[in-house]
C-alpha cells in the first residue's frame, strides 16, 4: 500500500496511474506489487456520486426496465448529466477529460446494481456496436458485410446480429469490408445513421436476462455513406 505521504505528493488519480506505470510489475524477488487501495478525495467523491446514482435512480427501476425490456430515459439522462458517459474522453473532444481509473470507479459502481448503458460520447445519444453477423461472431475476420466504393461514397450491404441497444440506438458503428481482396485488412468501421435509407432494425430478441438493453438484428441494404463516415482509418 502506498503511504499517505506518497499519495499526497502524487496528487490524485492521475498521479497514482503515472506512478503505477513507472514501477516494474514485479519486485526484485519476482513478486507482484500490492494493489493500490487508497483513493484520493476526488476519487472518493466520484465513488460516492456513482453509488448514490445507482441506488437512488437505477436500482428502483431495474424491475420495471426488465419487465418492459426498455432502458428508462431517466437512467440514460442521469448517466450523461452526472458526467459518467465518455468520462475518459479529453475535454478538447467534448468529454470531461477524466482518467481511466475514474472510468473503472464509475463502471464498477454501476455494475454493482445493474449494468451500465452502452452509450456514446454525444450527449443523450445512444449508439450500437455492429460487428457480429450470422456467420461470424468471435471470428470477426470472417464478416461478410461489404462496403463497396462508389465515387466519394460507400454502399454498405450486409446483416448484423445480436446488436446491443439496437432497439433505441440513433446510430451504428458498422464494421464492413471495403476491399475483400485484402482479406481482413479491408475491414473498416463506418458511422451509420439509423434513419438512413436501407437501414432496417428487426424486432427485439426476447432474452432470458439483461432485458432492458435491447438486442436486435440490423440489416443494411445498399446504405450509402460518405468517406467522411469512416471512423478511424481505412482498413483499421
From TrEMBL:
Residues 128-223 form the Acyl-CoA oxidase/dehydrogenase middle domain. Its EC number is 1.3.8.5. It is an enzyme of class 1 (oxidoreductase). Residues 40-117 form the Acyl-CoA dehydrogenase/oxidase N-terminal domain. Its cofactor is FAD. GO terms for biological process: fatty acid metabolic process. It catalyses: (2S)-2-methylbutanoyl-CoA + oxidized [electron-transfer flavoprotein] + H(+) = (2E)-2-methylbut-2-enoyl-CoA + reduced [electron-transfer flavoprotein]; (2R)-2-methylbutanoyl-CoA + oxidized [electron-transfer flavoprotein] + H(+) = ethylacryloyl-CoA + reduced [electron-transfer flavoprotein]; valproyl-CoA + oxidized [electron-transfer flavoprotein] + H(+) = (2E)-2-propylpent-2-enoyl-CoA + reduced [electron-transfer flavoprotein]; 2-methylbutanoyl-CoA + oxidized [electron-transfer flavoprotein] + H(+) = (2E)-2-methylbut-2-enoyl-CoA + reduced [electron-transfer flavoprotein]. Belongs to the acyl-CoA dehydrogenase family. This is Short/branched chain specific acyl-CoA dehydrogenase, mitochondrial.
